[in-house]
Every structure is written in structure tokens, then in C-alpha cells.
Amino acid sequence: QKLVQTLPKEKGWLGPDLYFYQGFWYPTRILKAFISFQNHFQAFNSDIIVATFPKCGTTWLKALTFSTLYRNQFPWDENPLLTFGPHQLVRFFENDLYLNNPFPDLQNVCVYQPRLFSTHVSYTSLPTSTKDSGCKIVYICRNPMDMLISFWQFMTKVQDGESLSLDEAFDKFKHGIIVHGPFFDHVLGYWKASQENPNKILFLKYEDLKEDTGSHLKNLAMFLGVPFTDDEEKQGVIEKIAKICSFENLKELEVNKKGAHISGVPHTGFFRKGEVGDWSNYLTPFMIECLEKLIQQKLNGSGLTFKLSSKTSNNIASA
Ligand code: A3P
């Protein structure tokens, strides 16, 4: 409480106010859990962490990483994804494990080994042990226009009844005000770290995964230290994982159609359209021009680019 009183504060998109701590925006509930995570989590060399900015493909990457990493630990037709949601199987640190408990029993929450967790926390704010140990991080980001629309739709859905105009959401996003934002600082933090240490951080993009899930699954498996064998490739294991984790499949599973995540988000809230380029149905020409300029300015010199649509022409926003 004392710390919060000293922090810069802004009105959130909907719901609680956001506080600026160590360069990023958080509501108090998440901030408290994040500080417990930061102070108390001890990474193992074998740990894997799925790190993402919200609405960039967290649910999908959790499903893909879980199914790839543990594929030999359960019979294929008993993949736990059929009975548990991706967020129940790969649990968030700050949105779940540390939410109501500064010292969660992490050994008992991980049924399979090596341990697999997830976070939306920025690279710079991760606990020291995640950086000093051999623990590996898989990060996914998404073009900011689709992320913005996905986030805006999500907020309206989870804060029943309340609504935020796209103009307001756009204005806040432009100024970096969004839970776990600024978006570009988050993405660039992981991007630079992955450039410096590609064996520790695998940097993925939602659009690339959509375009060719199979080849990215192969890279993911290699990165996790569990490459697909020739036999597995012949048996179509890669295609099977891509299929079970697909938007169309996960969205229709009973487990993802009912109930809610521990944070209060209904499971259905994690599945909307799952497309690249849906922003073009919402953003005005003015917003598009502003965002294109912002992307150019923020990514300038970084080498990071985003595909803005699934069409092949005129779709790269880069420095
Ligand atoms: P849209 O709102 O654009 O549909 P997160 O998992 O980080 O919260 O991101 C949610 C976004 O990923 C939503 O995007 C959601 O529909 C999409 N999504 C969820 N599961 C997916 C899957 N298996 N494949 C592709 N996209 C998925």
C-alpha cells in the first residue's frame, strides 16, 4: 500500500487504476502478485517460461509448448488439453500462482517435468534467477494493431456491461497505458534479449505461427531440447500437435466453453476470432496512419518487423 501511494497512476482501460512500476503499468492486484513473484521465485535450470504480452497468442503458445514438451508423457488421445484449458495446464505466475499467495507450492502444481510456467511480466522485471539460471523462455508477440483490437474486445467482454470506446482505448495505447505496457517496451525488451541470447530466449510472432505452424513447432521443439525424431515426423506428430492446438479445435472444446480462470476471466474470453488483420474491420484511417508512424518510430533500428495482414503485399511495418 505504501509503495502504491508513491507510484504514478493513470485510469485503466476499464476497471481498476494502473500504477507505473519499474517502467510498466499494473493494477494493484497484479502488482502485488508480481512483486511476490519477483522477490521469491527461484528458477531451476530446467524450467521453461512462456512469456507474452497480453492478447498476443498466450493461450495458443501455452497449448503448443505443453503438447510439444510433454508429448511422450501421456497417450496421445489423452492429451490433457482435451480436459483442461491451456491456462489451467500452464499457470501464470502473477495472474494465478502468486495472486493470493506469496509462497505458492510450485512443486505440486507441476504435474509434468520439466516445470512449465507463464508470465506477462517484462524481461527487465523478471526475477534474477530466471536470467542467471539455465531456464529457457519462449516469447510470442503480435502486430500491435491486432493486439489492440483483441485487447479492446477482451476488456469489453470481461468487464460485463462496461464499455470503452475504441477512441479511448487507442488514445491510451498510443501513450503506452495498458496493463503490462508500454507494448513496444515489452516487445523490444524480449526482442533484444533474444538477439543477445538466442539459446535462452526463443522469439516468436503470432503471424508467422499462423502462416506456418509446423516449421515453428519444429524450431520450438529443438529449442526446448525435445526435437521431433524422423519417426515422429513420418507419423505426422507435428501436424497432430498443430491441429489439437488450433483455434478451431480449442475454441470448441467443452472445457474452454465453460467456467472461468482463477483471475475471473471466463474461459471463452480467451477465444475470439484468431485471425491476422482483423484490425482493418475496426481502426479508422486516422488511427491506422498514427499506428503505422508509431510502429516505424518505436521499431526504428531494432530489426524487428510485424506483418499487419495475412495478404502477401503491403503488409510489413518495419523500421
Ligand atoms: P483475437 O481477439 O484477435 O481473436 P491471448 O491468448 O494472449 O490472450 O490472446 C488472445 C488472442 O489469441 C485472441 O485473438 C484469441 O482469439 C487468439 N487465440 C486463442 N487461441 C488461439 C489459437 N489456438 N490459435 C490462434 N489464435 C488463438
From TrEMBL:
Protein's organism: Gossypium hirsutum
UniProtKB keywords: Transferase
GO biological process per UniProt: sulfation
Single GO MF annotation: sulfotransferase activity
Pfam families: Sulfotransfer_1
Alphabetized SUPFAM superfamilies for the sequence: P-loop containing nucleoside triphosphate hydrolases (SSF52540)
Protein name listed in UniProt: Sulfotransferase
InterPro entries xrefs: P-loop_NTPase, Sulfotransferase_dom
Family, per entry: Belongs to the sulfotransferase 1 family.
Residues covered by the Sulfotransferase domain: 46-303
EC numbers, comma separated: 2.8.2.-
GO CC, one annotated term: cytoplasm
Domain of life: Eukaryota
